[in-house]
Amino acid sequence: MIFQYNYIFNIFDLNVFIIVFLLLFWIGFFLSFFIIKSDARSQLVRVKVHLYFISSISGILFIFFPLPEIFLTNFWLIYLLIRIITSFAVRYIRFNVLRVDKFGQMKTLERGKNLLDVKDLKVFYPLIGGMFRRQIGVIKAVNGISFEINSGQTLGLVGESGCGKTTVALSILGLVKKTDGNIRFQDRAIHRKYPSNLRQKIQIVYQDPDASLNPRLKVFEIIAEPLKNLLGITKKDELRKRVLGLMKEVALKREHMDRYPHEFSGGQKQRIVIARALATNPELIILDEPTSALDVSVQAQILNLLKRLQKNYGYGYLFITHNLAAVNHIADRIAVMYLGQIVEIGDTEQIFSKPTHPYTRALLASRSEVDMKNRDIKFIIRGEVPSPITPPTGCTFHPRCSSDVRTKECEFDLPHKIKIEEDHYIWCVNPPKQ
Ligand SMILES: Nc1ncnc2c1ncn2[C@@H]1O[C@H](COP(=O)(O)OP(=O)(O)O)[C@@H](O)[C@H]1O
Ligand code: SF4
Ligand SMILES: [Mg+2]
Question: 343-371 b/e with 16+ CB inside 10 Å = b?
Answer without folding.
Answer: bbbbbbebbbeebbbbbbebbbebbeebe
